[in-house]
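Researcher: Please predict.
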Amino acid sequence: MKKFLHRFRDYAALVLILVALVALFGSLSNHFLTAATFNSVANRIPTLTLVATGMTLVLIIGGIDLSVGSVLALAAAVLGVLLVDWHWPLLLSALAAVAVGVAAGFFNGFVCVKLRVPSFIVTLGTLEMARGLAYLTTNSQTKYLAGKVDALAQPIAGLPITPATLLAVLVVVAAQFMLSRAVIGRKMIAIGTNEAATRLAGIATAPVKVFVFATAGALAGLGAICQSARLGASDPNGGVGLELSAIAAAVIGGTSLSGGKGSVVCTFIGVLIIATLEAGLAQIGASEPVKRLVTGAVIVLAVVADGLRKKSQS
């Protein structure tokens, strides 16, 4: 019961922040509380939700993945080339895009585990390599998909949501179930809390960590498909700064940067907060530097709040 109340309190606090943001921007702009703004926020949600879910899992094991934005761009580039230049079927092209994400994530996890290199350094290098490969794959050109994947971004008949949004919600549910109910979820939390003690308890930590990074890569690949459907194109420049938004959503949702604590559902509410914040800033005419300043400030405030929460619990 105590655990349930604690979780409910976290959910309620995040929902109140979301409602406060909606009220604030609604008062600052006459055009914020409109269908156009709702559609803008809704279109932003699937890709960021998928990537932020993967980021949450990585943060829970005490790691970080700075490469997700570039991996998304590489997966999108592969999707575009296969669909437009090689004329592959959509399903095979989509599977190839996800496979590219899995390969990049597996590389990150393998190097971190086997060579004992901090994930910050490894994924920083992968960020540059994946972006370079995205440019090489498309010859630095945007691949226009001519409606080949638009159906993912179109509302389902009779429903106000798109298949991409439905996919993102299903992933959130599955990831939260894995964290709270599955054995591997408990192992992930144990690794993030104290990896040395987890190894001494007889748990093989290496396969779990590689699995988590590969999962984050797979979700970046899925995010690439959703983003390409929304844009109608595969852009090798896509995903720039996406890792920061994903980290912000996870940290706002209460995921600890030191590992061992996190909730995918709370991260999803964090995604809604980030998407609402970005849409609201755009509505009131904020410049791109101001948007980045605000996003960075939100991350810092969330980290400070996490630190204060840990002190109060110790």
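Model: The longest strand covers residues 143-144.
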